[in-house]
């Protein structure tokens, strides 16, 4: 379980399509093999680590359902360690189970921040509501608007500075995770 509050931006040092190694000194210094870490919103298990780097195995299922297959040496990624008992509950509940991949439709200046629009798979949009929560690249965000193609978010300067969302460009593929509460409500309501 995660909160969608990115703790560090790491840099991919190598990725051969199966083993992913990321330079992330802050996260690596407190990690050990077996820990869960969200990489751009994808929950992966640490298989090796030292004081500055973490390694993960990415299986075909993960690569098929996320944007991780596009990573290469030098790619920057959002990292968040798993929530531990007693940690502050900022952001929203994020599982690290990506629901699908969206495409950046546009990124426009808005005051001191930016407004980003994403095209999203239609099957995810039923869980996206205005002023609800969504995770984009593992970052907890509030939905500003929804349309038939996707949704928009308002990105504050802090988020732009401490995550990879500050480098979003039209056409980029992003990992999306909708609010888990919406899925449970749908499952429990009679059809």
Radius of gyration, in angstroms, nearest whole number: 16 Å
Structural category: alpha+beta
What is the mean pLDDT?
Answer: 95
- Strand portion: 35-45%
Low-confidence stretches: none
How do the strands of the widest beta sheet line up side by side?
1-2-5-4-3-6
Number of strands: 12
Total number of helical segments?
Answer: 5
Topology pattern, helix = H, strand = E: EEHEEEHEEEHEEEHEH
Instruction: Give the biggest sheet.
Output: 6 strands, antiparallel, barrel
Helix content range of the residues, please?
10-25%
The rounded distance between the terminal residues' Cα atoms is 29 Å
Give the overall shape. Answer: globular
Using brief descriptors, characterize the structure shown.
6-stranded antiparallel β-barrel, 15% helix, alpha+beta, 191 residues, 5 helices
Walk me through the topology.
Blueprint lengths: L7 E8 L3 E5 L1 H4 L7 E4 L2 E8 L3 E5 L2 H6 L10 E6 L18 E11 L2 E7 L2 H4 L7 E4 L2 E8 L3 E6 L1 H6 L10 E6 L1 H9 L3
Antiparallel strand pairs: 1-2, 1-6, 2-5, 3-4, 3-6, 4-5, 7-8, 7-12, 8-11, 9-10, 9-12, 10-11
Question: What would you note in describing this structure?
Answer:
The protein is an alpha+beta fold. It has five helices and twelve strands. The mean pLDDT is 95.
